[in-house]
Predict the structure.
Amino acid sequence: MRPKREPSTNNQQTYLLTTNTWERRALFRNERWAKLLIDTLYHYRGSAYRLHEFVVMPDHIHVLLTPLTGIEKAAQFVKGAFSYRAKKQFNSNMNVWQTGFQDHRIRDTADYDAHVTYVRENPVRKQVCARPEDYPYSSAHAGFETDPAPQGLKPFNIRAAVGAAKAAPFQNEVGQCRANAGTSNQNQTVAKKTSASVVVQRRRRERTTDFSSQQLNLHAQTY
């Protein structure tokens, strides 16, 4: 089950917003469509969100932004406004977007840096270009002004991460600990059995010795 999305409020948190075209059609392979979408992104920059990174792929987009009015509102500005403008400029009545969108809330500076790289490298991973800056519909390309990283992001706490890893060992480490404990218990059991066997044998020898001494004494008295 998908977690519930946070309420649409001005929480000043940063998100990676992802949305696909209707039936994953490659609408933004068309230069006019791609440029109109980028123009729409910049139209609402500063009023609806801060724009940190973006990439317009043929059938989907990734936008790293900090909403000023909530993530749902930001998505509505991008998708709804573009659909309206495309209908007017291109005289198109086709469905542009799939219903809904995906979002990931950025946790800290390390998470932010990872998603900046993810957005910029997307065309390279899809083998559309050799370098991020070569793709013309991406903030990695020269000429696009974007907003700096949010100042409110928490720094990545490496000590806490290491401490958590020590406090909660990996499953294979737990398994190894259990295996070692099992081996130790087996060794202790074997040692106990061995010790008990030695005691029994010793007692048997003592009984035999006592019986032999009694026999010798009896024989001496008889003769």
Summary: DSSP finds five helices and four strands in the chain. Residues 160-179, 206-223 have pLDDT under 50 and may be disordered. The first strand starts at residue 15 and ends at 20. The first helix runs from residue 31 to 43.
